Amino acid sequence: MVGLEVPFGIFPGGFPVAAAAAAAGRLSPGLRVMLVFGLGVVVGAAASAWRAGELIWRGRLPARELFRGLAGGAVMAVGGWVARGCLNKHGLSGTPGLMLSSWITIAGIAATAWFLARPGRRGAR
Amino acid sequence: MILGSVFVVGLVLGMIVQPSRFCVFGAMTDWFGQRRSERALMVLAAVAVFGLVNLAGYRHGVEYPGALFLAGGVVQAVGYALGRGCPLTLLVRLGEGSRFHLAVFVGFLAGVGLYTGLLARPVEAVLGPLAWTGAQTLGALLR
Predict the structure, then answer these.
(1) What is the pTM of this model?
(2) pLDDT single digits (tens) B87-119
(3) What percent of chain A shows pLDDT beyond 90?
(4) How far is B50 from chain A (nearest CA, A)?
């Protein structure tokens, strides 16, 4: 098993892994930072949404949406792990840091985003 | 206390991102799909701010450019399109109560398990060596 030192830095991409590690009782200091950071974001967003009346817990989740979500999460996790970081880590930390690895990752993401979102294509979002 | 301040940073970030709909991937799709640049400008502002961190002497880990990053980027992007957002957006939508993004979160864990448990070794074996060890940063490249 490739080592579980999460290659996401402090960025949000590491939060799901940190949450799972916490549930399993194996929270390293680095993961703890990611967990706390992620919780802060979730709570902050919830507070902001609550004040604006934008909380949306109600409603069904159709099966097709459920599978799309599961698939999306799995694919983004794999891609993030392979690239040693999610797009926030590469785009906001590596890119201004002039890391070629980050530039390459962002180029790959941008090209795919273009391919999927270009006008004339049935909406992906 | 480090954890306390990290939590507060996350809190503030969540409160800012939620209404502003900041999303790096969303910025790209808005631009490519509809020529809308609001989010792209937000991203540029964020990049500039993070650039200051680098000026302050932040050291990045060792990362030689290579095929892993290109492949990882492409695969991530497919995931973001399916999952309707990048990981930051995922956290924010979880805060808003989006069940769809709860599914994305679960899928994320499944993906990590699947990859580290099964796919990592072959992927790393094939793509890992396709890297260039000449330089890691633009500065080193130009020197």
Answers:
(1) 0.85
(2) 999 999 999 888 999 999 999 999 988 888 888
(3) 29
(4) 6
CB contact under 8 Å between B109 and A16, yes or no, is yes
B19 interaction partners in chain A (CB closer than 8 Å): 48, 52
Nearest-CA distance A7 → chain B (Å): 10
**What's the CA gap between B75 and A83, in Å, rounded?**
9
Interface probe with B: pick from A50, A65, A87, most Cβ of B within 10 Å: A87
Q: How large is the ipTM? A: 0.86
Q: Which tokens belong to B41?
A: 């400008």
Q: What distance in Å separates the CA atoms of residue B90 and residue B100, rounded to the nearest whole number?
A: 10
CB-CB under 8 Å, B79 with A36:
no
Q: Do B72 and A105 touch (CB under 8 A)?
A: yes
Contact A43, B14 (CB under 8 A): yes
- Contact call for residues A86 and A8 (beta carbons, < 8 A): yes
Instruction: Give tens-digit pLDDT for A3-29.
Output: 334 555 667 878 888 888 888 787 887
Chain A residues whose CB is inside 8 A of the B134 CB are none
Q: What is the pLDDT of residues A19-77, one digit of tens each?
A: 888 887 878 877 888 888 899 999 999 999 988 887 887 667 888 999 999 999 999 99
